[in-house]
Amino acid sequence: MPFIPSVIKWINTKRLSQIELFRKYPEETQREVLQRLISRSRDTLWGRDHGYRSIDGYRKYCENVPLQTYEDMVPWVERLRAGEKNLLWPGEVKWFAKSSGTTSTKSKFIPITRESLEDTHYRGAKDCLVLYTSCNPSTKIFLGKGLTLGGSHQVNSFSNNSLFGDLSAILIENAPGYAELIRTPPARIALIEDFEEKMRMITETTAEMNITSISGVPSWYLVLIRHILKTTGKSDLHQVWPNLEIFFHGGVSFAPYREQYKKLLPDPKMHYMETYNASEGFFAIQDDLADSSMLLMLDYGIFYEFIPAGEAGDANPRTLTIGEVEKGVNYAVVISTDCGLWRYMIGDTVEFTSFFPHKIRITGRTRFFINAFGEEVIIDNAEKALEKACSGTNATIIEYTAGPVYMGDEGRGAHEWVIEFDRAPDDAGHFVEILDTTLKSLNSDYEAKRYKDLTLERPIVRIVPRGTFYKWFRERDKLGGQNKMPRLSNNREFVESVLKTAGI
Questions:
Q1: Which residues lie closer than 8 Å to 496 by C-beta, 6 or more apart?
Q2: Are 69 and 103 within 8 A, CB to CB?
Q3: Residues 6+ apart with CB under 8 A from 6
Q4: I need a labelling partner for 447 at 20 to 30 A (CA). Which of 133, 321, 322, 400 fits?
Q5: Does domain 119-158+175-285 have CATH number 2.40.160?
Q6: For the chain, what are the domain ranges?
Q7: Half-sphere exposure of residue 212: CA atoms within 13 angstroms, side-chain side
């Protein structure tokens, strides 16, 4: 529809002026956001309990409201799921985004309010287009459609009062009708639970379309792209969609996949833009195609605080506002949002790369983890799974570390576990089976990635000789009780170095 680009151009011009305002005045913008959040919530149960009517600024806010983890929020979330109103945010919460837990819980259920949908998540999606078109004024992205690959779970009901599902499913379910003009696949396909069936339907319905943009998680998209190429008999994706020009990606680091995407999308005019979004909110967008850092979006329904990463585990860490941070320092991110999360530690760490505008890069998690494919396996998952595997095979472990095996041209990803046993398992194959099965039961995102081996294959366990880890520490002059082996890592540094020490 030829009128769409002109309408969008007019909207984009208006939005760019607003973005420029918070680029110049970050502190003032964030101060207004905090004031608005507190004002809206002062008569909720949470607001009354924490004296929101007496809060007259940031420091008073810190005095009244302690830092929160998901474990702290669980009792409130359970009451919201049961249908109670006006608890954390005014009104009733009907939707909950399900994601893998970063605590002892299998999954988190993040409340999604109407305000968080409109003012945060949808606004972030719109701003991706705004910022891309400002970087690439000659774009023809609006002459075709954008393909969005969401999660593989259907929206499900808790009760008559509330529903949950992948955030992507919730966004599709609540999207305005006009979204269908610029986005594909339609909701009936996008919300298919079976990922293989979804891939088949997406391929069938979009192979002849004019797709100009794609958006989603890089690891999942690799699976989809390879399926499309196999089905169509094409050697690269530009042969299927010649006008494809941009991939909006997020969720996991793009670095391990970059070379593979170059092979599958060889046109040098192909662009990539990173986003930083999660169930808890939409936080940052790459605003310069030549700069991988991302612009922190300061005028959404999110107020930011930052804890120096070294203090994240302290009982009373320092919290800094946007005006107090420094460049080149790792910070744990704390958010207060219009979905009713208050001083909530999301578990991510970031580093500021510039001021005015305030731009960031994601540096990791506050805890060791593996999240190379969106599975977010954490220490708690690993310890419980290994314990069960040992119990089931009469084994005992001295030391271990684990990291990802990245997707190759034909293969899939996996986790590689390097383990030194005091007593080796009776059946090594059975040990791996129990480890894998237990991880699936503990972590819903790992379970999804392992579905029919589409993204993750069965774990690889490397048994190293007795004394390997001791030797590894000794080689690095790190013998002693205060030095610990990183149990999980999102890269292969420790896995490969231990294997080298073992002569494998």
A1: none
A2: yes
A3: none
A4: 400
A5: no
A6: 119-158+175-285, 369-501
A7: 12
Would you say 475 and 501 are in contact if contact means Cβ atoms under 8 Å apart? Answer: yes
For the CA atoms of 214, 215, 217, 222, what is the dihedral angle to 10 degrees?
A: 0
pLDDT at 256: 63
User: Quick one: pLDDT at residue 251?
Assistant: 81
pLDDT digits (tens, 9 = 90+) for 463-486: 999 989 989 988 987 765 456 788
Residue 102's pLDDT is 40
Q: How does DSSP classify residue 119?
A: I
Distance CA 348, CA 231 (A): 38
**What b/e sequence results for 235-263 when a residue is b if at least 16 CB atoms lie within 10 Å of its CB, and e otherwise?**
eebbebbeebbbbbbbbbbbebbeebbee
Q: Of how many residues is the chain composed?
A: 504
Going by C-alpha positions, the residue among 150, 35, 29, 133 that lies closest to residue 97 is: 150
Q: How far is CA 496 from the centre of its chain?
A: 26
The two tokens of residue 168 are 């992507």
Q: Output the CA torsion 88→90→93→96 (10° steps).
A: -50
**How many CB atoms are closer than 10 A to CB 106?**
15
Residue bearing tokens 């078109």? 133
CA distance to 426, 432, 486, per residue, from 393 (Å): 5, 10, 25
Any bridge partners for residue 488, and if so which? 402
Q: What number of H helices and E strands is found in the chain?
A: 17, 20
